[in-house]
Amino acid sequence: MRKCLALAVLLTFTFCLAQPVFSQTSDDLKTIREEINSLKEGQTAIQKDLQEIKKLLASRPAPAAQTAEFKEAVLNIGDDPFKGDKNAKLTLVEFSDFQCPFCAKHVRETFTKIDEEYVKTGKIKYVFMDFPLESLHPNAFKAAEAANCAGEQGKYWEMHDILFANNKALSPKDLTKHAEAIGLDMPKFQECLDSGKNAAEIRKDMAEGMGAGVKGTPTSFLGLTGPDGSKIKVTKILRGAIPYSNFKEAIEGVISPKK
Predict the structure, then answer these.
(1) For residue 102, with 0-12 CB atoms within 10 Å meaning exposed, 13-18 middle and 19 or more buried, which class applies?
(2) Which of 35, 4, 44, 30 is nearest to 17 (CA)?
(3) Which end of the chain is less congested by CB atoms within 10 angstroms, N or C?
(4) Nearest-angstrom CA–CA distance, 217 and 20
(5) What is the CATH number of domain 2-255?
(6) Which of 212, 229, 230, 231 minimizes the C-alpha distance to 220?
C-alpha cells in the first residue's frame, strides 16, 4: 500500500512540474514548494484519480505505435473547444489545468503570442483539452466544468481567460462571480454546474491525454489535421511552460520544412 501511495505521489508530482528545474525562477520554486505541501494532503485523492483514469483507458482502443516524436500517434479531439480556422492543415492541441500555475504562466507568456501570429491568421487551429488533477488542484475539475458550462452559452473562451487570469480564485463562489463577470445567464449556468453534466467529457479528455503520453501540464501536441477535423496525426510534442520560441520553431518546421 505504501509503495502504491509513493508511486501515486511521484506520478502526480511529475504531472504538474513538467518543465526543467534549471529554468525556474524564485517564484516558480516557491510555487513548487506549495505544490509539494498540497501533495502531502492528497494521497487518497491521487489514488482515486488514477483509478478513474485507469478505467477510462481500459475502455478505449489501444493507441497506435509511437516514435520519439509521436509521428504515428493519432489524437482524437472530437468537438473540444477550438480557436482559429477549423480547416487549417495544422492543429495545436493543449492539455491543461485551470489551477496549474505553470499553465497560467503559459497562457500569459506564450499562448498570447501563438494566438496573434498563428491562430488569428488562420495558419493553425488551436484546441483546448482538459487535464485537471483534483488531488493536486482541488478546484481544477469544477473550473473545467464551469468553462464547459460557459461554452453552452457561447462564452467558453471568455470563461477560459478569466479562470486563468484568476487561477488562485476558483472556489464555487469564485466560479459564480466569474460567470457573472462575463455576462452569463446565471440560472442556466448554475444549473449546468450543479448537475455535473460535463464531468464525463472532462474525464474523456483526461483519458485521451494519458493514452497519448501526457506527463505534465501544460502539454501540447502539434500535428496534421484529419479530413473531418476530429483527429490529428501528431508530429511533435511540447512539454511544460516553455518559451514561445520553441513553439515557433516547431510550427515553422511543419509549415515551411527545410529541404
Answers:
(1) buried
(2) 35
(3) C
(4) 13
(5) 3.40.30.10
(6) 212
3-state secondary structure 64-75: CCCCCCCCCCEE
Measured CA to CA, the distance from residue 199 to residue 206 in angstroms comes to 11
In whole angstroms, give the CA distance from residue 233 to residue 74.
5
Q: Is the dihedral of CA 162, 78, 220, 5 positive or negative?
A: positive
For residue 51, count CB atoms less than 10 angstroms from its CB and return exposed for 0-12, middle for 13-18, buried for 19 or more. exposed
- Choose among 240, 23, 232, 256: nearest CA to 248: 256
Cα separation, 232 vs 141, whole angstroms:
25
Q: Which residues contact 170 (CB under 8 A, 6 or more apart)?
A: 98, 99, 139, 140, 142, 143, 163
Domain ranges of the chain: 2-255
Give the three cell numbers for residue 254. 511543419
pTM: 0.75
CB atoms within 10 A of CB 111: 25
pLDDT tens per residue, the chain (259 residues)?
A: 444 444 444 444 444 544 544 455 677 777 776 666 655 655 555 565 556 556 555 554 444 333 334 446 899 998 899 999 999 999 999 999 999 999 999 999 999 999 999 999 999 999 999 999 888 999 999 999 999 999 999 999 999 999 999 999 999 999 999 999 999 999 999 999 999 999 999 999 999 999 999 988 999 999 999 998 899 999 999 999 999 999 999 999 988 877 6
